[in-house]
From TrEMBL:
Organism per entry: Rodentibacter pneumotropicus
Toxin VasX N-terminal region domain: residues covered: 38-221
InterPro entries per UniProt: VasX_N
Protein name: Toxin VasX N-terminal region domain-containing protein
Cited CDD domains: MIX_II
Domain of life, source organism: Bacteria
Pfam families: VasX_N
Length: 299
């Protein structure tokens, strides 16, 4: 006769590792709380006529003024790298701007560069649009947004959709410009002026013209007009260690755009570490060179 009593089977006890559970919980929490824009920071600077070149030109020791475009960073004694003058930075994507775009096609990303509230260069009412007050603090980049009429219509302050990035909801201005993290090639230009829709359309259709006016940048590899952002203090006059406290301001006192030593931009919460991922990009500023040469004629 079989035993009617069923043998009670006990499941083996699961051994819990409290340390691993706590670690997994922390990683999960960090994953939800982590907020960083998927971008590559780009810091645009300009090619300007060098201190030595303008000194020689002012003394009449240069027979023919330069008409040569800069060959690359550190490749010409006639040019030095300097901070941008107040104006606009235009970035054309060979693929598409997805995180934010100034136009409705995802091809253009435009930033307004503001130096300070007293700067009359590139005077624009852009900072007052949408908010009714000056949104630009000292030396910052503001996102531009065009409406239905494109660049010929209103230029408003742009705002990244913060639904997926709540940690940047407070950010209205940036220390650098940027592009999407997976973008490879872009064309970048600086201008004092708001470009019209006609100019924008022509650059979109005419690759050769765009390459003449704009600088092509490989985001993944520093080339002749780009360098790691961490090397700002090596290449850019305002960020180089001062020899004397007022040395730079004295040497450029008579310039159209005077130079002063400045602090290197610092990283902002919610944005990638500039020292690790950022690129410095050198752009032509032909109008700026003309301003300096014209100023020499008036001295």
């Amino acid at each position: 006769m079989k035993n009617s009593k069923q043998t009670k089977q006990t499941k083996p006890k699961m051994k819990l590792d409290a340390a691993k559970i706590n670690q997994a919980a922390q990683e999960l929490s960090d994953g939800h709380s982590k907020c960083e824009l998927p971008i590559i920071p780009l810091y645009p600077v300009r090619y300007g006529l060098s201190i030595d070149y303008l000194a020689k030109a002012g003394a009449g020791n240069i027979k023919a003024l330069t008409e040569t475009a800069p060959a690359g960073i550190g490749q010409s004694s006639e040019h030095s790298l300097m901070q941008l003058r107040q104006g606009f930075v235009y970035i054309y994507a060979h693929t598409k701007h997805r995180l934010f775009s100034t136009d409705d096609k995802g091809k253009w990303l435009v930033f307004r560069y503001v130096t300070n509230n007293d700067d009359t260069n590139s005077a624009s009412e852009f900072e007052q649009l949408s908010t009714g007050q000056n949104a630009g603090l000292n030396a910052c980049f503001l996102l531009c947004k065009w409406g239905e009429q494109g660049a010929n219509g209103d230029w408003a302050l742009g705002q990244i959709d913060t639904k997926n990035y709540p940690c940047i909801s407070h950010i209205k201005s940036f220390n650098t410009v940027f592009v999407d993290k997976d973008v490879d090639i872009v064309d970048i230009a600086y201008s004092e002026y708001m470009w019209s829709s006609e100019i924008i359309e022509r650059f979109e259709k005419d690759d050769k013209l765009r390459q003449i006016v704009m600088t092509t940048v490989n985001i993944n590899t520093p080339e002749k007009h780009s360098a790691p952002l961490k090397d700002l203090n090596i290449h850019v006059l305002e960020y180089q260690p001062p020899k004397n406290s007022n040395d730079l301001s004295e040497q450029t006192q008579s310039w159209y755009t005077k130079l002063n030593y400045a602090a290197i931009p610092t990283s902002v919460a919610g944005l990638p570490d500039y020292q690790e991922t950022g690129l410095m990009v050198a752009l032509q500023d032909v109008v700026g060179e003309m301003h300096e040469l014209q100023k020499l004629l008036l001295i």
